[in-house]
Amino acid sequence: MSDDKEGKFIIEKIRLAGQKVNEPILEKSIKEISSENKYTKLIIGPYFCECGRRIGKENVNRCSHCGKLLCDECASKWEYLGKVHCKQCLSNYHDISLTRQEYLILLCISNGIRSSNKIFKLTGVKPSSVRKIIHSLIGKYLTKTRASFRENFFPKLRLTDLGNDALQIFERVYGRDEGSSKVKQRIAEFKAKLKEF
What we know:
Arc Repressor Mutant, subunit A; alpha+beta; 2 domains; two-stranded antiparallel sheet; single chain; 7 helices; 197 residues; 9 strands
């Protein structure tokens, strides 16, 4: 922002990191406003996704709820029920939001590993934290509802439909990093050992 000697007021290179704009996407990038004593020039752009990637006409998407601009990669990560969402709207409108630890714990439970000590060995999340997280996820992403007569005596912790949806979405977010890959490998090795017995 600057103010020169002739009374011109110039604002340049405003970065709108994923904010909603009222114009067609990226079509108007320069606005000029002049009055008797003032000349204002607004250059809006470049546009950036909330992940930091630059957005252009070839890779731009909008959140179906708030209209926030997203790059192609974020749009594919946060897609749910056939629509593009930003992370915030996915949480606000569909109640889907997971931390990395919650994702890893749901991953273990979806693979039949329910003991907090075993989850600790596979993920590195302390058993006390595992128990707290499991307790906080029951009713939303996890359930102890009995699915068979046998479970009246041996209750089983399992993912709800929303828990399965959340796990699939956050697989696209956390599932590709090195830490998650190692946990998946440990889970596969653990399950292979169980089959041996």
